[in-house]
Amino acid sequence: MLKFVLMLLFLVIGLFYKNMFWFFQNMLFIFFFFYMCMGYNSYFSNISYCFGLDLVSYGLVLLSLWICALMMMASESYIRQNNYVNLFMFLLFFLLLMLVLTFSSLSVIMFYLFFESSLIPTLFLILGWGYQPERLQAGIYLLFYTLLASLPLLIGVFYIYDYVGSLNFMLLMNSSLIGYNYIFLYFCLIGAFLVKMPMFLVHLWLPKAHVEAPVSGSMILAGVLLKLGGYGLLRMFSVLQILGVKLNYLWIGVSLVGGVLVSLVCLRQTDLKALIAYSSVAHMGIVLGGLMTLSLWGVSGAYTLMIAHGLCSSGLFCLANISYERMGSRSLLINKGMLNFMPSMSLWWFLLCSSNMAAPPTLNLLGEVSLINSLVGWSWVSMIMLSLLSFFSASYTLYLFAYSQHGKVYSGNFFFSTGVSREYLLLILHWLPLNLLILKSGPCMLWI
């Protein structure tokens, strides 16, 4: 495992040569290929010093590498504008290094350290390459929401060390906190992850950050950083299982009701990026609900949908950025009639929108079916909110597709545009894994 960390570290050091943008992007794809060929054996494997990986880590590290390579491909305009390209690449590679270290940490304290460190490059990406002056407010929202919730987590980690005598993930799996006197600790340990997912009620930082972030910032936020919350919960519930069985109904209720309310908010959006950002909150709501049931179906479905949402949401942000570069606006009132304007791109809008509403044969479908199965098995009452959530999820996706693709073109000077091959390659690299991974859906169930 250490060899990959060192490879990334040396790539970060070599970023200050000029005109190396595409070379480093290709290096990321090569790195992804090496990592994929390494594979995983059983349980934790490839352990070196304080790093190792199991199936959950392996999938999320692969997702991080893939999304970061596609981020570079989507940010080609920075080369044309000479927009601090080397600094941008440095932040991107530093963020990737932090993510790889987070997902492959074997100790809770190491995980906490890198989990918080991933916030810094994201903040700089938003502040440095964002589109509007409001990015400062978005950065402050992101910083304070995350940091305020993470301090109790640090205190909780220290308490676990005092209680168990170790912070190693494998040793923590054999110990569980029992009794209602640990309720405060339970809230401390999962609060930071609920904000990061984000759960409804602590989600306001996400739409702001997405709307103000550049395309690369939106891609990494939707693709990987939201998954840090789910990954943290998966790890922490090895200690909180018994308390979770008694208290998790609270989060399941909030996430399901919140998912429906956020879906209704989506139907009132006029900003492309805000609509896609709110749809992420709705999807993470059902992920959180399934995860909190602590069942095999729920945990497997949550993991599957996290991977699927990372690819699908990132692709939709790419499409929103392609429209923004042509029309100069993200408003749905201006971005309409795109079927006349960019007919070839409409196919990709259709394919990724259908993935977003979990149409077959996408990985989203497998994840949502598993999650619905787990939630209905947990309580029949959840069917009410689940049916509303599924219906409105399809509604706002159709609203996004219909409003952006149909109607008359807003611009009086009608002209025809096809898009460049780089953009089509970028979109196909989001869509293909999303539809091919469902063919190999078995191992998702085997990690427990």
UniProtKB/TrEMBL annotation:
Top-level taxon in the UniProt lineage:
Eukaryota
As for subcellular location, the record says: Mitochondrion membrane
EC class (word):
translocase
Among the GO biological process terms of this entry, one is: ATP synthesis coupled electron transport
User: What is this entry's stated membrane topology?
Assistant: Multi-pass membrane protein
Q: Name one GO molecular function term.
A: NADH dehydrogenase activity
What reaction does this enzyme carry out catalytically?
a ubiquinone + NADH + 5 H(+)(in) = a ubiquinol + NAD(+) + 4 H(+)(out)
Q: What is its main location?
A: mitochondrion
TM helices/strands, residue ranges: 7-35, 55-72, 84-103, 109-131, 138-161, 181-206, 218-243, 249-267, 274-297, 303-324, 345-366, 378-403
Q: Ranges for the NADH:quinone oxidoreductase/Mrp antiporter transmembrane domain?
A: 106-392
One Pfam family, please name it: Oxidored_q5_N
Among the entry's GO cellular component annotations, what is one? Answer: mitochondrial membrane
Q: Which UniProt keywords apply?
A: Electron transport, Membrane, Mitochondrion, NAD, Respiratory chain, Translocase, Transmembrane, Transmembrane helix, Transport, Ubiquinone
Q: Where is the NADH:ubiquinone oxidoreductase chain 4 N-terminal domain?
A: 1-102
InterPro entries xref list: NADH4_N (IPR000260), NADH_UbQ_OxRdtase (IPR003918), ND/Mrp_TM (IPR001750)
Would I find Ribonucleoprotein among this entry's keywords?
A: no
Q: What is its EC number?
A: 7.1.1.2
Q: What function does the entry list?
A: Core subunit of the mitochondrial membrane respiratory chain NADH dehydrogenase (Complex I) which catalyzes electron transfer from NADH through the respiratory chain, using ubiquinone as an electron acceptor. Essential for the catalytic activity and assembly of complex I. Core subunit of the mitochondrial membrane respiratory chain NADH dehydrogenase (Complex I) that is believed to belong to the minimal assembly required for catalysis. Complex I functions in the transfer of electrons from NADH to the respiratory chain. The immediate electron acceptor for the enzyme is believed to be ubiquinone.
**Hey, which family's this protein in?**
Belongs to the complex I subunit 4 family.
Protein name, as recorded: NADH-ubiquinone oxidoreductase chain 4
Q: Which organism is it from?
A: Mansonia uniformis
Q: Could you tell me the gene encoding this protein?
A: ND4
